[in-house]
Amino acid sequence: MELFNLKGKTALITGATHGLGMAMAKGLGKAGATIVINSHSSLERIKEVIAEYKKEGFTAYGYQFDVSIEKQVREAVAKIEKEVGPIDILINNAGIIKRTPLLEMEVADFKEVLDIDLVSPFIMAKHIVPGMIKRKGGKIINICSMMSELGRTSVGAYAAAKGGLKMLTQNMATEWARHNIQVNGIGPGYFATSQTAPIRVDGHPFNDFIINRTPASRWGNPDDLAGAAIFLSSAASDFVNGHILYVDGGILATIGKPYNEE
Ligand code: GCO
Predict the structure, then answer these.
(1) C-alpha distance from residue 98 to each of 106, 111, 120 (Å)
(2) Which of 53, 61, 158, 190 is catalytic?
(3) pLDDT averaged per 10 residues, the chain (length 262)
(4) CA 145 to centroid of ligand 1, rounded, Å
(5) CB burial string 66-75: b at 16+ within 10 A, e below
(6) Is 158 a known active-site residue?
(7) Do the beta carbons of residue 254 and residue 219 sit within 8 Å?
(8) I want to staple 220 with a disulfide (CB 3.0 to 4.6 A). Which of 68, 130, 191, 234 is the partner?
(9) Cα(150)–Cα(240) distance, rounded to whole angstroms?
């Protein structure tokens, strides 16, 4: 189990005040890592969440900055590395979704989704990787999606971003693997989070569709992601690079089945 031990490691997880980000942060904390969370929400909210992490016995710090604004990222990374220590693990989890059919979508909305879901992981890595290169090692995990592989009505901008993030992940690995930096992605399937709450309502056609479309016949629980996050953050994945690990209950493995088929 030493392979999965993250003692002495510092992990920065963006968008970790709730949902998947928080579940992955707690997973890394359980494996021994010092947790640094980012959010652009209120400082009060960040303080509340850090108190929750500490109550559960984790060493945790919180920083408020907008991952899509380079100046804020540059300053925050410098502050974190001065106050907490070198960042060994980066999880680019912060993201947004706008559910609007493409013909009805404003260009500004399309650009905002691309900015936060695709450009921000690039900005974060651009300011953290130079330190990882100096220290001859590091881990980056980009949170992709089913929409890195599949289209869905109303989430075109999100799919464009998550599809792009899959290739950005592969190209980051191509350029940085030689510095002993492993860059990989995690592709969550359909998880019970605030982001999916609007489409996960009992009786909502999409809710029943997903349960029928997913071989595991359920929505994912955020904790279902912790194992993948620990694996891709630890020595256990030191020769895994440019890989997208889909944690989706089997959605991508199957064409699906008719509703009346067991
Ligand atoms: C949607 C969902 C998805 C999921 C996830 C699937 O509207 O289809 O919100 O985007 O959140 O990304 O992998």
Answers:
(1) 11, 11, 17
(2) 158
(3) 96 97 98 96 92 96 98 98 98 97 98 98 98 98 98 97 98 98 98 93 90 96 98 98 98 91 78
(4) 7
(5) bbbebebbee
(6) yes
(7) no
(8) 191
(9) 24
